[in-house]
Amino acid sequence: MSQKIRTKGAQALAEALKALKTMASATILNLQGCEIGDDGAQALAEALKTNSTLTTLNLYNNSIGDNGGVALAEALKTNSTLITLNLYNNSIGDNGGVALAEALKTNSTLSILKLQNNSIGDNGAIALSEALKTNSTLTTLNLYNNSIGDNGGVALAEALKTNSTLTSLSLESNSIRVNGGVALAEALKTNSTLTTLNLYNNSIGDNGGVALAEALKTNSTLTTLNLESNSIGVNGGVALAEALKTNSTLTTLDLWGNSIGDNGAQSLAEALKTNLTLTTLNLYNNSIGDNGGVALAEALKTNSTLTTLNLESNSIGVNGGVALAEALKTNSTLTTLDLWSNSIGDNGAQSLAEALKTNSTLTTLNLYNNSIGDNGGVALAEALKTNSTLTTLDLKSNSIGDNGGVALAEALKTNSTLITLDLYNNSIGDNRAQSLAEALKTNSTLTTLNLEGNLIGDNGAQSLAEALKTNSTLTTLNLEGNLIGDNGAQSLAEALKTNSTLTTLDLWDNSIGDNGAQSLAEALKTNSTLTTLNLENNSIRVNGGVALAEALKTNLTLTTLNLESNSITVNGGVTLAEALKTTSTLATLDLWGNLIGDNGAQSLAEVLKTNLTLTTLNLGCNSIGDNGGVALAEALKTNSTLTTLSLDSNSIRVNGGVALAEALKTNSILTTLNLENNSIRVNGGVALAEALKTNSTLTTLNLESNSIRVNGGVALAEALKTNSTLTTLNLGYNSIGENGGVALAETLKTNSTLSILKLQNNSIGDNGAIALSEALKTNSTLTTLNLYYNSIGDNGGVALAEALKTNSTLTTLDLESNSIGDNGGVALAEALKTNSTLITLDLYNNSIGDNRAQSLAEALKTNSTLTTLNLEGNLIGDNGAQSLAEALKTNSTLTTLNLEGNLIGDNGAQSLAEALKTNSTLTTLDLWDNSIGDNGAQSLAEALKTNSTLTTLNLENNSISVNGGVTLAEVLKTNSTLTTLNLGCNSIGDNGGVALAETLKTNSTLTTLNLQSNSISVNGGVALAEALKTNSTLTTLNLYNNSIGDNRGVALAEALKTNSTLTTLNLGYNSIGDNGGVALAEALKTNSTLTTLNLDSNSIWIKGLLAFSAAFKVNLTLTTLHLKENRTTGNIALVLLKSLESRKTLTILNLGYKSIEDDEALALCEALKATSSLITIDLQSNTIDDNGAQALAEALKANSTLTTLYLQNNSIGSNGVQALAEALKTNSTLTTLDFQNNSAGDNGAQALSEALKTNATLTTLDLWHNSIGSNGALALAEALKINLTLTTLYLQDNSIGDNGAMALSEALKTNTTLTTLDLWGNSIGDYGAQSLAEALKSNSTLTTLDLWRNSIGDNGALALAELLEINSTLTTLSLGYNSIGPKGAQGLYWVSQTTSCHILK
Prior knowledge:
The protein is of the alpha/beta class and 1401 residues long. 41% of the residues lie in helices and 11% in strands. It has a 51-stranded parallel beta sheet, with helices on one face. The longest helix has 14 residues, at 9-22. The protein is globular. It starts with a strand and ends with a strand. The mean pLDDT is 91.
């Protein structure tokens, strides 16, 4: 009999013990996630000593430490029935491990022991190894993600030589290096029982791989070998292949994330021709190109055992794709082929399609991100009509458009095997969605359909909804990012009333408002299958929130509801809380960014006291203050289900922080608490620290940006000495200083659970870094350490380097923006020579220089683990680049090298190019903003002829001209791996443009090409246009700031009529006139892929805008159009806007500098009322006055999508502002209103203030240069006392004076949301500054205060200096151009030495 305990903590333990005593036949006890802790484990252990029936005990995720582990071990010495013990994800260290090992010496029943994700180190592993030498029952031992290292690995290997029962050994993520790998290999030569060995994510390298290969030649039992992410290169790959020729037992070989390259793949292919046992081969991310792909394909023609081949994230192009397709025609065993993120293109897809017509074994084909267009899509669809085995087809992120979409839909009508079809990001559109919907009406096999990011709109949604009414198989429908509005949502809701199969509906990032939400809510009342509904980032307000809450009261199936980034506000939050009182299914509720405030939080807190289902609650960015925080804390004291609570970006201060801490002392369920960007300050930090001393469940605590300072940091450090559950702690931006850093370092010497520590921007300095370094020498759990922007110099760098020599767990070290110079750089380099765990090192913006780069390069020659090295913004010149290049010739692990913003010229580039000819791992090389000319570019081009791994090359802002551009273009004709080439801000000219265009005609991998500011004119533009007619891979083309001209604009437009892949085209600043504009608009009528078109700063006039207006009536894909600074008049701009009334896709429209006047603005009102997609409109620098503003205001009352409105530099006065303010009282979507350089005056400011008292969405208000005086400031201040949403207020260049500043100061004492206040140029003197300083002593949210160009003297400066000694949230204070004398300057100087605030003087 099995018993599953569903309660938590003490109650769970009581139930478990009762079950053991009263249920005589109980054989399985499941306490997973019950958080019983050490005390519970000890009680259970006592029961196990006498229990004689239990065979399986599951204690996964129970916060059990060494004490509990020791007690359970003691019980195992006498218990004679238990055969499975699961202790996964607890906090058992070496002591517990040693005790369990001792028990295994005498226990005679246990066969499965799961210890993954504990904190067992070398000592524990050595003890377990000793036990395995005599134990005769254990068959499975899982030690995944402990810290056993090489010593533990060697000891376990020794045990395997004599042990005769263990069949499965998992050692993933354990910092085992070459010695451990070689020892395990030696053991396999004689061991005759082990069938599964998992070494995922260690660092055995080529030597370890070769040793294991040698063992496989004689071993006759191992069937599964996992060597994922082990830094195995070509030699290891070749050796393993050689072993496979004679080995006759291995069925699964996983080499994911190594670097075997083409040579390794070719060797494995040769082995597959004769090997008769291997069924699964994983070669994901191994730098395999066409040669390797072709070789593997040849092997598949004769191999008769392989069923799964994973070639994800390699560089296989058309040739490899065609070869694999040819193999599939005769191969009769392969069931899964994964080609995710290669570059097979249309030709490869067509060949695979042809193969699918006759192949009768393949069930899964993954072609995600392969540059497949319509032709490939049509071919695959044709194959689906006759293929009878394929069940899963993944076509994500290709460029399948209208024809391909229609063809796939047609195929679904007759295909009877496909169950999963993924068409994410493929430009399907409304029409193709309708075709797919038609197919769904008759298709009886498809269960999952992903149409995310396809611009299908309301019409497409309505068609799909109609299909759902009769379809009886679809369970998951993903419609994320599809411009679906209320009409589409209402149709889908109607379908849900009768549909009885759909369980997941994803509508994230659409334009659904209250009406759509209300319809969906109505459907939920009767629907009995939907479990997950995602409505994140729509336009749902209070009414929609209330309706959904009402539905939850009766719905019996929904478990996950995501309403993130809507505007349900307080009432919505309160009604959802009410619903939670009765709902019995909802486990996850996401309300991030909904402004529910304290009242909403209090209501939810009240419910949490009795709710028994909710496990995850996200209340981030909701204007929750102390009252809400205290209420939630009170709820946590009795709640028994919530494991994750996110309260980031609220206004919780000390009281809330202290209350939450108090709750953690008794709460035994919560594992994750996110308080980032609040203001709990020192007292809150100290209180949380006290709670951590007794809390036994919390694993993740995020306190970033909370001003906990030194005392809070020290207190948390003290707590971590005894806490045994916390694994992740984020203390970034908290000013913990040197003392806090030292205290945390002391803690790390004994703490055995923390794996991630983030200390960014804390001013810990050299002493803090030195202390942390000392701790790293003995710490065996920390994997990630973030020390970004901490004033660490050479001494700190040297100390950290010394620690890296012996530390065996750290994988990520971020030292960005410190002051590590020559000595630190050399020391870190020396450490990399022996360190075997670090995979990411970030040294951005230090002072590395050539000498230190040479040292790092020397280290890279022998280092075998580092994959990412960021050296951006240092002072590396040609010598440093040459040294790094030399290292790349032999290094076999580095995949990303960032050398942006250094001093590298042609010589350095030539050296790097030479290295690329032989390097087989680097995928990204960033050389932006150096001094590389044609010679360097030509050398890099030469390297690209043979290099088969580089996918991204950034050469922006160098000195490359025609010759360099032409040479790069020539090589791209044959290169089959590069997907992104950035040549922006060079001078390749027309000839370079023509050459690249010629390349695009045949190149089948490039997806992004940046040619901005390159002096390309007529010939280059025409050539690029011609190329786009046939190119089927390019998605982004940036031609900003060239000289394309009208005729070339026409040529590009002609190309857009047939091109089916381009999604982004930037033609800003190119002298395109009406002819070009008309042609581009005409092209938009038939083009179905372009989503973004930038035509800023051209010369498009009346005809062009009229043409765009006509195009909008039929185009269904364009979402962003930039027309700023053209020649168009207001009247014609209006015509364009009127066309938006039926427009369903355009979201961003820039009409700045269009001479729009009142008449046009009046009519604009009608257009905005009707459009249901526009979220941003830019009307800056027109001639709109009060009448136009009043019309816009009227539009805002009805519009439900606009979030951003730019009105700067118009002629709007107080009457216009008053009208806009009136609109803001009811509008619930606008978040940004830019009103700078108009004439609002005091009356306008007063009207806006009145609106701010009730408006619940506006976050940014810009009133720069608006003739506002003290009265206006007084009114705004009054509003700020009650407004809960405004975060940014710009009042620059007005005349508010001291009185206005004093009024605003008073408001800041109680305001909890404003983070930026700009008072530049406002005639504020000492009195105003003193008032602001006094206010900021208690304010805990303002981070930026701009007082530039006022009249502040010494007294004001000294008051502000005194403030900075107390305030811990202000990060930027601007005081330039005031009247501050030596006394005030000295006061500011001294405080600047101890504060984290950046004072701009």
